[in-house]
Write a sequence for this structure.
């Protein structure tokens, strides 16, 4: 009897079916609904917390059923809700009622990157004095890698400014967007999550470093995209922003 | 956790919104409790806030995800994360629930009811053993808020007493859950208290509840989103008169009031505890 209990109860939670599937003396569906409502509500609130800008742009009433639909297809599979909802941006893109907000999925990607950066392992980024202590001819051969919190997003819509304006602390406001590629870097060198737009060439440079390439290899690849790519400037910016992993030597 | 001449202390749930207030708080004996599941990320400011708060105040870890009442053994990765947190924060107490929350690899993130059969008892004891062995510590098991009767072969107090006997675990008496279950199922809470081993009770929880409006028959739901209700204070006073004073937590997860409001409730709990520890000679 009890072997079926968990499976039947789980089926009731996931499928919303009535008490008839539970092989126990329970006959009151409204009591079982307490558990079902709790489970769904917990997942929705976790997604709302993880995707605050999406929620702010759509409002709670629109967000909740969208989140519930995600939960039905992707219930949590790890025992912590902190990073629940990895596939939510993809879900938003496919969610029919959101088709009038084609940029919303990119907003979700930014929310996700910020969440991952917030909870990424704490690490000291590469310090300027470390590089300054090197022989100049050794620097191009260096393959520093990127700080573990870095996420680089290639977006279809230029949503960075909108995302910042409608995040917590932003003033909101009206906006109009036309589709245009935009690259954004998200990272957390210390306590705060920071974001910035990147040129395509700088993004290629950093992606190359992330793949383990040296500065000179990364620069060469970036220059294919943009012959005017300035490696010294890009490297200097990356160093001062804290994009590079610490202890590169 | 207690000075020989003092009563046990009361504590409060710690939420990120209150990190700064918690760090600055100076109340004597104040301790905090968190869900370890909220601190299982690889890094981030939250972990370091907890380091700083733990440096000043004792910490209790109250798990919600290990699913000890489930069919499966505790998830090894989850246990490993637990062990890392125990190592890092050196909590004064650790606890989990008489409940399940996962089946196969789906986690429901809620405390689901255990059908208290003999098979369920064996499995639950097996899982408590695994948890205690992995963490090298005694675990306190919390009684759940119950909304419906299942196919039980034991009554709840009996079941818990048996778990204590077999595993050496302790108990976390949630007075709000006992009150809710008593109201919803017609259980006698004083009789329930009489049947659990008092010496095993290592902590008490007090929390708020609300009526389920949808059901509309006075069904009480354990929301942790309201002040502790008067009848729960009464049951708390009765409980500690019977079992003695214990470290007591004001458990608040939702509708967070200002931190100072939690400290006021905490002070009320502390007064109850002090009264039992050092009864007024005029009333003896």
């Amino acid at each position: 009897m009890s072997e079926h209990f968990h499976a039947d109860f789980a089926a009731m939670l996931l499928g919303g079916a009535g008490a008839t599937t539970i092989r126990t003396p329970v006959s009151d569906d409204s009591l079982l609904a307490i558990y079902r409502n709790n489970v769904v509500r917990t997942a929705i609130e976790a997604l709302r917390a993880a995707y605050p800008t999406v929620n702010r742009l759509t409002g709670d009433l629109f967000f909740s059923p969208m989140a519930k639909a995600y939960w039905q297809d992707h219930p949590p599979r790890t025992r912590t809700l902190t990073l629940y909802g990895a596939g939510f941006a993809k879900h938003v893109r496919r969610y029919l009622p959101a088709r009038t907000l084609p940029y919303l999925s990119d907003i979700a990607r930014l929310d996700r990157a910020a969440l991952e950066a917030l909870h990424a392992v704490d690490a000291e980024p590469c310090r300027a004095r470390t590089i300054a202590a090197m022989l100049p001819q050794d620097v191009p051969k260096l393959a520093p890698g990127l700080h573990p919190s870095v996420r680089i997003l290639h977006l279809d819509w230029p949503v960075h400014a909108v995302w910042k304006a409608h995040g917590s602390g932003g003033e909101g406001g009206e906006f109009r967007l036309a589709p245009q590629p935009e690259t954004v870097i998200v990272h957390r060198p210390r306590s705060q999550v920071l974001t910035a737009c990147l040129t395509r060439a700088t993004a290629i440079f950093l992606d190359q470093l992330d793949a383990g390439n040296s500065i000179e290899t990364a620069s060469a690849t970036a220059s294919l995209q943009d012959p005017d790519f300035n490696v010294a400037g890009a490297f200097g910016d990356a160093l001062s922003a804290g994009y590079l992993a610490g202890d590169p030597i | 956790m207690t000075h020989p001449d003092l009563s046990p202390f009361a504590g409060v749930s710690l939420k990120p919104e209150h990190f700064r207030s918690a760090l600055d708080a100076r109340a004597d004996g104040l301790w905090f409790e968190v869900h370890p599941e909220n601190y299982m990320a690889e890094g981030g400011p939250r972990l370091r806030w907890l380091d700083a708060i733990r440096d000043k105040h004792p910490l209790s870890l109250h798990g919600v995800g290990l699913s000890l009442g489930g069919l499966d053994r505790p998830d090894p990765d989850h246990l490993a994360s637990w062990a890392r947190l125990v190592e890092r924060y050196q909590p004064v107490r650790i606890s989990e629930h008489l409940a399940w929350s996962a089946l196969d690899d789906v986690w429901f993130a809620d405390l689901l009811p255990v059908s208290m059969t003999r098979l369920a008892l064996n499995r639950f004891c097996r899982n408590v053993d695994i948890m205690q062995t992995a963490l090298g510590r005694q675990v306190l098991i919390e009684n759940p808020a119950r909304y419906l009767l299942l196919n039980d072969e034991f009554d709840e107090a009996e079941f818990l007493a048996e778990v204590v006997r077999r595993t050496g675990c302790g108990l976390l008496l949630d007075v709000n859950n006992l009150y809710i279950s008593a109201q919803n199922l017609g259980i006698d809470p004083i009789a329930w208290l009489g049947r659990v081993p008092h010496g095993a009770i290592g902590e008490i929880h007090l929390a708020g509840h609300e009526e389920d409006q949808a059901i509309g028959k006075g069904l009480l739901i354990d929301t942790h989103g309201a002040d502790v209700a008067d009848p729960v204070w009464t049951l708390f006073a009765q409980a500690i008169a019977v079992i003695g004073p214990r470290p007591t937590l004001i458990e608040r997860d939702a509708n967070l009031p200002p931190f100072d409001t939690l400290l006021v409730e905490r002070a009320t709990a502390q007064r109850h505890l002090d009264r039992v520890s050092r009864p007024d000679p005029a009333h003896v």
Notes: The two ends of chain A are 62 Å apart (CA to CA). Residues 96 and 235 of chain A are 43 Å apart (CA to CA). Chain A has a mean pLDDT of 92.
